[in-house]
Amino acid sequence: MKLLFLILIAPLISYSQTNDSIFLRKIYNTALSKGEAYEDLRELCKTIGARISGSAEAAMAVQWGEQKMKSYGFDTVYLQEVKVPHWERGTKEAGWIRTSEGKMLKVNLLALGGSIGTNGLLEGEIVAFNHMDELKKASKSQVQGKIVFLNQAMNEQQIETFRAYGGCYTIRGNGAVEASKLGAKAVIIRSLGLAIDEHPHTGSMHYADSIPKIPAAALSTQDAEILAQILKKQKANFVFEMDCRDYPDVVSYNVIAEIKGSKFPNQIITMGGHLDSWDTGEGAHDDGAGIMHCLEALRILKVLNYKPINTLRCVFFMNEENGNRGGETYATWSKSRGEIQLTALESDRGGFSPRGFEVDGSEKYVTFLQSLEKHFEPYDLSIFRPGYGGVDISPLKRSFEGIPLFGFAVDSQRYFDFHHAPSDVFENVNKRELELGCAAIGAFIYLLDRNYSIFLP
Ligand SMILES: [Zn+2]
After folding, report:
1. How far from 117 is each of 13, 173, 365, CA to CA, in Å?
2. According to a count of CB atoms within 10 Å of the terminal CB, is the N or C end of the chain lower?
3. Mean pLDDT of the 157-162 span
4. Given a cut of 60, is residue 156 above it in pLDDT?
5. How far apart, in whole angstroms, are the C-alpha atoms of residue 171 and residue 225?
6. Angle 210-211-216 (CA atoms, 0-180°, nearest 5)?
7. Looking at the DSSP assignment, which residues form a beta bridge with residue 99?
């Protein structure tokens, strides 16, 4: 019986593995020799640039994405309506340190996304904290009427930079609420970045209904260091002006392309990133690179004439940065249409050298993911482990119980030099690294489609 199995089945297994490896090689060859992702990214970054939800640039990016997808001849290309928040930075944004000796030093700052403005020049004595926990333990008398400076640095000893970012996220997300609880008139934070440089990093923050809203801004790490030095010797005031504000919600869109499943068109494998970006830099790594990874993966599969078993769908999600309305809308919409979402993959960690894939799912899917590692040995991918999928695809978990979500893992060491900063521009994305990412995702999606039965309920 065993012998019979080996004689009959073994050749089939090795035949299909050889076929897979030949096809993966074709995907990589196409990405590296006939790639279009890099030029597509250049177009998006240089003709449109930063594209925060609700902006004219975001609307242009939707049109650009739809036209680009149509030009590649996918089976279906369409827009999906999403109501998005609309916050604008405004035109005034400047800040200074005024030392007790009366010296003025100009700093590089960015309002945090969602912050209120300062309503003219705002000045106050600075009270500094090196950690969020210190602020939480402070008394009202220490903070009342002052400007809180949260100088909590990302942990540079942490190898995975996303963990270092996660450890500091609270100063940006919750700094205003915690400072305002103690009567502060504003909060300024050290930018969330590992490098000491002149670029401030914005990002989302929030208010609590019961607590007065105060303006919130991020200083460049360099300015944060300078300010900390000054405060060691003397008191100082912070002076700044910002006229950022919220506007009513705006209609925007997710942009979607599909190659229909040849056997199971109602079974969907979703891949995507986010089309919106912060309103500084060009949204090149975050997340221009991620949407190009997925678009190019789909394009390559089409060019190679691959006929997927299930529908392969590439989604440019809108509004990941300050609301995730695109992700929410997509999950609800897909469920309401009676679709079967088999699985989803997100690329939102920059256009750097690929390292592998993570899965947010049950043990069965971790084992499955690890079984794919052998296919990627020739391509230097070694991360195949449990982890995180992505913000845009995360609402699928609510609509589709037990769905495994895959996250594309890249070399994270330089990501936070550019994340949400003016330096997130096209020039800081490397062509070959971007192309290797497109190939890795194309290969991975192909393997997910071929092995789709593991995702069936
Ligand atoms: Zn992102």
Report:
1. 63, 17, 47
2. N
3. 96
4. yes
5. 16
6. 140
7. 236
Looking at residue 15, its pLDDT comes to: 61
* CA 249 to centroid of ligand 1, rounded, Å: 21
Q: Looking only at Cα atoms, what is the longest distance across the chain?
A: 91
95 contact partners, CB below 8 Å, separation of at least 6: 106, 107, 109, 188, 217, 219, 238, 239, 240, 241
Give which of 169, 247, 184 is closest to 216, Cα–Cα: 184
The pLDDT score that the predictor gives to residue 122 is: 98
Ligand 1 centroid–CA 350 distance in Å is: 8
Mean pLDDT value of segment 169-182? 98
Q: Say if CB 262 and CB 307 are below 8 A apart.
A: yes
Reading the block at residue 110, the tokens are 């960015």
The two three-digit tokens of residue 104, written as one number: 């003025």
Cα torsion angle, 419, 439, 406, 353, sign: negative
| pLDDT mean over 53-63 | 98
d(CA 157, CA 223): 22
- Give 81 Cα–ligand 1 centroid separation in angstroms: 20
Strands 109-111 and 216-219, bridge-based pairing: antiparallel
Q: Is the Cβ–Cβ distance between 273 and 324 less than 8 Å? A: no
Interval between CA 321 and ligand 1 midpoint (Å)? 7
pLDDT at 429: 98
Q: What's the 295 CA to ligand 1 centre distance in angstroms? A: 16
User: How many Cβ atoms from other residues are within 10 Å of residue 428's Cβ?
Assistant: 18
CA of 188 to the centre of ligand 1 (A): 23
Q: Ligand 1 mean position to 176 CA, how many Å?
A: 22
- Amino acid of residue 19: N
Helix orientation angle between 290-303 and 56-71, rounded to the nearest 10 degrees: 20
